[in-house]
C-alpha cells in the first residue's frame, strides 16, 4: 500500500508522542509527573456543566448544528469582544465557531493559500501552524523568536523576497511556548507590515485571560487596521478549563472568516448545540473562574521560578500563559535535557526544539498540574542534576 507524500512529511503530533512516552514509563512502574501538556487540571465551572446538561435534554439540540454556528453563540462572542477589547464584530460575517481553535488553525491554509504558496510561522510556535501548512501543500517558512528580541518576530529582518511571497503569518501572544507578551508597538508595526506586504495575519490568542501581576493582554483586532489584514483565533479551552469540550472561534476579516467557513462546511458539521449554549454560559455567566485560575497559575509560576533559581536554571518571569520557558544548562540540548529529566526524575517536560528550530536550547514547563505534584516534580528535577 502506498500512502501520500503529505502523510510522509507529517511529523508525529508532539503531544501524542509525549502521551506515548508517559504511558511507556508508567507501564515500567515509574510514577511519572507530566509538565508536558498545557491542559488545565481544574474542572470546568459548574454553571457551564449544568447548562450543557440542561441543553443536552432538548431534542432540538440532537440534530445537526448550523454549519456556521449558533447565531446566539456568535453574538455572545461579538459581545464579549466588545466588552473585553472594545472591538466591534459583526456576529454574522466576522465570527465563526470552531471545534476548538486547533481545528481552525489546521484548516486555515486550505482556505487562504494554494499549494506551493509560502506561509510564515512564528518559531518556536504551536505545532499545528506548521502541520496545517503541510496538509495543504503549503511551504512553511519559520520566523525566529529570539530572547534578544523579547521573543517577538523582527519584522524588519524578514527579507523583501520572503515578505513579498508570503501570503499568511501565524503567530500568538501571550505566547506558547515562550510565555512572552507583545507590546502595542509590535502589533501596530505588524498591521502596517502586513498591509504593506499583503500578508494575512492569523493571530492566535487563547491565553488572553491568563495573565498575571496586573498585565492585561490585548486582542490583535483592537489595533487600527487589523481587521483589514487578519483574523484572531480564540478559544474557551484555557480560559474556562474546557479543553475537552472542543469549542473556540475565529473572528475578524470577513473574507477570511467566510473562506474558512466554506472549507468547514465540507469537512465537519459544526459543534454540538448544547456545547455552544454552554459556551454562551461561559462567556456571559459568572467570571470568577478567571481570577481564581490567574491566582493558581501565578502561584505555580512563582514555585517554578523559585525552584529554578535554587537549581541554577534560568527563565524569564512570565506575565501570562501557563508556561515557563527554561534555558537548558551547558552541555545539554533541548532533547537531551528533556530525556535526562524523564529518565532521572520521572518528569515530562517538552523539548523546545519540538516547537521549531529556534526553540533549541530551551524546555517548556507547564503549570497545569496540582501544586503538590508540581512541588514533587521540581524537587525531583533538582535531585536529578
Ligand atoms: C491550546 C492552544 C490552542 C488550541 O486550543 P483549542 O481551542 O483547545 O483547540 C491553540 N493555540 C495555542 C497557542 C494553544 O496553546
Automatic annotation (TrEMBL):
Name the keywords, alphabetized.
Aminotransferase, Transferase
What Gene3D superfamilies does the record tag this protein with? Aspartate Aminotransferase, domain 1 (3.90.1150.10), Type I PLP-dependent aspartate aminotransferase-like (Major domain) (3.40.640.10)
* Every Aminotransferase class I/classII large domain range: 31-381
Entry-linked InterPro entries = Aminotransferase_I/II_large (IPR004839), LL-DAP_aminotransferase (IPR050881), NHTrfase_class1_PyrdxlP-BS (IPR004838), PyrdxlP-dep_Trfase (IPR015424), PyrdxlP-dep_Trfase_major (IPR015421), PyrdxlP-dep_Trfase_small (IPR015422)
What's its EC?
A: 2.6.1.-
UniProt key word Transferase: yes
A molecular function (GO) term: transaminase activity
Q: Which domain of life does the protein's organism represent?
A: Bacteria
Keyword Transferase recorded: yes
Q: Which cofactor does it need?
A: pyridoxal 5'-phosphate
State the CDD domains in the record. AAT_like
A Pfam match: Aminotran_1_2
What the record says about family reads: Belongs to the class-I pyridoxal-phosphate-dependent aminotransferase family.
The name this protein goes by in its record = Aminotransferase
Tell me which species this is from. Candidatus Aquicultor secundus
Amino acid at each position: 500500500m502506498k500512502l501520500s507524500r503529505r502523510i510522509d512529511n507529517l511529523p508525529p503530533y508532539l503531544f501524542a508522542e509525549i502521551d506515548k512516552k508517559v504511558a511507556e514509563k508508567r507501564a515500567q512502574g515509574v510514577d511519572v509527573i507530566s509538565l508536558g501538556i498545557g491542559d488545565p487540571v481544574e474542572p470546568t465551572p459548574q454553571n457551564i456543566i449544568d447548562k450543557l446538561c440542561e441543553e443536552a435534554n432538548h431534542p432540538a439540540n440532537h440534530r445537526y448544528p448550523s454549519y456556521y454556528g449558533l447565531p446566539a453563540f456568535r453574538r455572545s462572542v461579538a459581545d464579549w469582544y466588545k466588552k473585553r477589547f472594545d472591538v466591534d464584530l459583526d456576529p454574522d460575517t466576522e465570527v465563526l465557531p470552531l471545534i476548538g481553535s486547533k481545528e481552525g488553525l489546521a484548516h486555515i491554509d486550505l482556505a487562504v493559500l494554494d499549494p506551493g504558496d509560502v506561509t510564515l510561522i512564528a518559531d518556536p510556535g504551536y505545532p499545528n501552524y506548521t502541520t496545517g501548512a503541510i496538509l495543504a501543500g503549503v511551504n512553511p517558512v519559520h520566523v525566529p523568536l529570539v530572547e534578544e528580541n523579547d521573543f517577538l518576530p523582527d519584522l524588519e529582518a524578514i527579507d523583501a523576497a520572503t515578505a513579498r511571497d508570503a501570503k499568511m503569518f501565524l503567530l500568538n501572544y501571550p505566547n506558547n511556548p515562550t510565555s512572552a507578551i507583545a507590546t502595542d508597538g509590535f502589533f501596530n508595526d505588524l498591521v502596517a507590515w502586513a498591509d504593506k506586504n499583503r500578508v494575512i495575519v492569523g493571530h492566535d490568542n487563547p491565553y488572553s485571560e491568563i495573565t498575571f501581576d496586573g498585565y492585561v493582554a490585548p486582542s490583535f483586532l483592537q489595533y487600527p487596521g487589523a481587521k483589514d489584514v487578519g483574523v484572531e483565533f480564540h478559544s474557551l479551552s484555557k480560559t474556562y478549563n474546557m479543553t475537552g469540550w472542543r469549542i473556540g472561534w475565529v473572528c475578524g476579516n470577513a473574507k477570511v472568516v467566510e473562506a474558512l467557513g466554506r472549507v468547514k462546511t465540507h469537512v465537519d458539521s459544526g459543534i454540538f448545540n448544547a456545547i455552544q449554549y454552554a459556551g454562551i454560559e461561559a462567556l456571559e455567566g459568572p467570571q470568577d473562574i478567571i481570577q481564581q485560575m490567574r491566582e493558581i497559575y501565578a502561584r505555580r509560576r512563582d514555585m517554578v521560578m523559585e525552584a529554578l533559581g535554587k537549581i541554577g536554571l534560568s527563565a524569564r518571569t512570565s506575565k501570562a500563559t501557563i508556561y515557563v520557558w527554561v534555558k537548558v544548562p551547558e552541555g545539554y540540548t533541548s532533547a537531551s535535557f528533556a530525556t535526562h529529566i524523564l529518565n532521572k526524575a520521572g518528569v515530562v517536560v517538552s523539548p523546545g526544539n519540538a516547537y521549531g528550530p529556534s526553540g533549541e536550547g530551551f524546555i517548556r514547563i507547564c503549570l497545569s498540574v496540582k501544586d503538590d505534584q508540581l512541588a514533587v516534580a521540581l524537587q525531583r528535577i533538582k535531585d536529578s542534576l
